[in-house]
Design a protein that fits this description.
This protein has 791 residues and is an alpha+beta fold. Helices cover 60% and strands 6% of the residues. It contains 23 helices and eleven strands. Component of the exocyst complex involved in the docking of exocytic vesicles with fusion sites on the plasma membrane.
């Protein structure tokens, strides 16, 4: 017959070991469709079908017989599936027989006897065994049944009569037996009381051991939690706690409740420990995320992530304050705080006002500059992690969205969205504090009076060179770029942009002021050596100074993305124009001062041994010191060069570097130098022409000369020769300094002499013949001099 079902498969037995007649539960698949379908069951080779009780297709209950094998398989046979297989085994435990009074740690149950007849599958007591056929005849038909019924009635009547007589006859024996049994019961109680007591104690101990073994995870959990906390295995602690909570969180067993309460106490201490570690500073972003996840898994009360953000915000502000910008760090406290500041960024050079950098440059830099460097380091190193922690908090990546935790994560995300304005206020407070501290150190006048007392207190008497302000601008720009890279909204960083604009304006004005001071010291470098063009090195030094100043302003004045143009600010335009004009006028004033110095006022220690051009006599002068007239000529030549070349070159440089008022600066400067040139020229002409003009009239009338009564001319008189020699010496002096000045100077001197001669001749009322001839000779002599000059 073909089988429609799969053969039986035994997959489990409980217990899996025991003594004979141990009751076991067999579990598996296809164990039969009903009691009648089960036709075979063997354990360790022993047939256990008689004691088998079919419960379902996956469960059978039976007792293990006295099998010969100590260990074997469980085989189930059904009509529908045939003989099955087993994936488990059963082990039969053998025990020694003990006497009635022998001590034993295990209570031995009474032996159950079963009818092993093959036609019975239900266990019976041996006392209930009866003959197989109580009717005494074989029943083949109805007549046989009627006869058997009569026999049964006869036997019943005889039994009743015999039983009654037996009872009446043995009544006394019954009472004696009853008394004997009562005495035996008392004797048995006395004999077995100790044994029964040991049995109860053994049962209690065994039950307690079974409970401890079965629930050893819970009982060992407090100690395991303590050990794992000491080792730092917080993940193991959390997993064990979750398991214990799912198993014993709602238990009503007193001992379990007591142990679980101890577990909760240890977990509460762990929550406090993790929260302390989370709020501890400094700490890395990785550790912060790890502790937040631990606290989330432990269902810590409140919002640990937000508590960490608040603690980090306070710590960043404290670090910034400790850099040395607070009011409490004044005097000696401020000096000790600033002495610990380390300079980390490099200083870019490019200005003539910057000294060469050496190993000790950071100790020479101003305290405010070192303070800004330290402040920037704090912001750049701490704020990115602070921002990333907030982003992780908002998007929920700090928590694991698994199972029942997903609801908690959604709640925390909702809390984060509600706290966006609070976090925005934290970022704005950090940037605002940064700006306030920098302004208090470098721009105290831009702060209100109350904030100036809080964040100021620095030495404002020392003016920091433009190079240090350039370094500060570079540092603040790096800070702004680092924060922008985090995608922090621009409105939160606007205060830094405003600070940069003010710093750039301050750098511009400071650099111009320092340049003006440097220009005022340029006359000390004047060596009075003229080149072929008739100028000294002073105009070139001035131009070099201005160009280097503009080059030093190139970086701070350069407009980075998002920055405003300094020169588009009306205040900056006006101040820069005034300072640039002031620089030009300062240099012009220096030229004028040089022209008015006497010989004793000039320091000739740095002057060259010889002039750049030979004088009219071609001689070389040692320890050359220019005369006042020579200084006037040299300065006049320098003024002409400034007007025609230097100021025009500077105008191009100013326009190239963004100065929108370059034309105005050039125009005002040229007007000023023209005024100086005119004054100096008139002074030189006055010094040179007055002696010549003044000597004409005394020379003419020397010896009581009379135009009406004079001798015929025989030659040129001495005074005229002296005048001509004086003019020639002026020509030589001017030509030695600058050829371009010769026409301008000599034309004015000859003009003055001519005017004087004309005046003198007009004063003569009449001339004699010889007097007229004298006038012709003088005129001819001047014509020769003028012609020679023009040739």
């Amino acid at each position: 017959m073909s089988r429609a079902r799969q053969p039986p498969l035994v997959t489990g037995i409980s217990p899996n070991e025991g003594t004979p007649w141990t009751k076991v539960t067999i579990r598996g698949e296809n164990l039969g469709t009903g009691p009648n379908d089960l036709i075979g069951l063997s354990i360790c080779g022993h047939n256990c079908l008689l004691t088998a009780e079919w419960m379902s297709a996956s469960k059978i209950v039976c007792r293990v017989g006295p099998a010969k094998d100590d260990k074997g398989e469980i085989i189930v046979t059904t009509r529908s599936g045939g003989k099955g297989t087993s994936t488990v085994s059963f082990k039969v435990l053998r025990h020694e027989k003990i006497g009635i009074l022998d001590q034993s740690a295990v209570w031995v149950d009474e032996m159950n006897y079963y009818d092993m007849r093959t036609d019975r599958n239900k266990g019976i007591s041996p006392l209930s065994l009866r003959p197989a056929n109580p009717l005494g005849i074989d029943i083949d038909n109805f007549e046989h049944l009627r006869v058997a019924s009569g026999n049964l009635k006869k036997q019943a009547s005889k039994k009743n009569e015999g039983s009654l007589a037996y009872v009446k006859g043995g009544l006394s024996t019954f009472f004696e037996a009853q008394d004997a049994l009562a005495g035996a019961s008392n004797t048995a109680d006395t004999l077995f009381q100790e044994v029964l007591g040991r049995k109860d104690k053994a049962d209690s101990t065994r039950n307690a051991l079974n409970v401890l073994q079965r629930f050893k995870f819970l009982f060992n959990l407090p100690l395991n939690i303590e050990r794992n906390i000491q080792k730092g295995d917080y993940d193991v602690v959390i997993n064990d706690y979750e398991k214990a909570k799912s198993l014993f969180g709602n238990t009503e067993v007193p001992v379990f409740k007591k142990v679980y309460a101890e577990v909760e106490t240890r977990i509460g201490a762990l929550r406090n420990l993790l929260l302390d570690k989370l709020l501890e500073t400094p700490s890395t972003l990785h550790d912060q995320k790890r502790y937040i996840r631990y606290l989330s898994d432990l269902h810590a009360p409140g919002d640990p992530a937000w508590q960490c953000i608040v603690a980090q915000h306070k710590w960043i502000l404290q670090l910034m304050q400790n850099c040395g910008g607070g009011l409490e760090l004044d005097g000696e406290l401020r000096s000790s705080a600033l002495s610990r500041i380390s300079h980390t960024a490099s200083l870019k050079r490019g200005s003539s006002f910057q000294s060469p950098r050496d190993d000790s440059w950071q100790y020479k830099s101003p305290q405010q500059v070192r303070f800004v460097e330290k402040l920037s380091d704090v912001v750049i190193s701490q704020l990115p992690n602070f921002w990333k922690l907030w982003i992780s908090y908002v998007n929920g990546s700090l928590f694991s969205e698994t199972g029942e935790k997903s609801g908690q994560v959604e709640k925390l995300k909702k809390n984060a969205r509600q706290r966006q304005n609070d976090f925005k206020g934290m970022i704005e407070e950090v940037t605002r504090r940064l700006v306030q501290l920098v302004r208090g150190a470098l721009l105290p006048t831009t702060l209100p009076q109350e904030q100036r007392r809080l964040y100021g207190g620095w030495d404002t008497k020392t003016i920091h060179p433009g190079a240090w302000l350039t370094q500060v601008i570079h540092t603040i720009r790096l800070t702004h770029d680092a924060l922008s890279a985090l995608e922090i909204p621009n409105d939160m960083l606007q205060v830094i942009q405003d600070l940069l604009l003010d710093l750039r304006m301050q750098c511009l004005l400071t650099t111009l002021q320092q340049t003006a001071e440097d220009v005022k010291r340029l006359p000390e470098k004047e060596d009075w050596i003229v080149d072929n063009e008739g100028i000294t090195s002073l105009p070139a030094l001035f131009e070099q100074c201005m160009v280097q100043m503009l080059q030093s302003l190139k970086e701070p004045m350069e407009c980075k993305p998002g920055e405003a143009n300094v020169f588009q600010q009306e205040l900056a335009q006006d101040e820069a124009c005034k300072l640039c004009v002031g620089i030009m006028k300062a240099f012009i004033n220096c030229l004028e001062q040089l022209s008015t110095k006497t010989d004793g006022d000039i320091d000739t220690s740095h002057l060259s041994v010889e002039m750049g051009s030979p004088d009219v006599f071609g001689s070389i002068h040692e320890d050359f010191s220019p005369s006042p007239e020579q200084r006037l000529l040299i300065i006049l030549s320098n003024c002409q060069y400034l007007e025609r070349h230097t100021f025009l070159n500077l105008a191009e440089h100013l326009e190239k570097h963004g100065f929108t008022t370059a034309d105005k600066i050039t125009r005002v400067s040229r007007e000023a130098v023209c005024e100086l040139d005119e004054r100096l020229f008139e002074s030189y002409i006055e010094k040179k022409s007055d002696p010549i003009v003044g000597s004409l009239e005394p020379g003419i009338y020397a010896g009581y000369f009379d135009w009406k009564d004079c001798l015929p001319p025989t030659g040129v008189r001495s005074y005229l020769k002296e005048a001509l020699v004086s003019i020639i010496s002026v020509h030589a002096e001017v030509f030695t300094v600058s050829k371009e000045l010769v026409p301008r100077v000599l034309s004015r001197i000859i003009e003055s002499v001519s005017e004087e001669m004309s005046r003198l001749m007009q004063c003569v009322s009449s001339f004699s013949k010889n007097g007229a001839l004298q006038v012709q000779n003088k005129t001819f002599a001047f014509i020769i001099v003028i012609g020679h000059w023009y040739l």
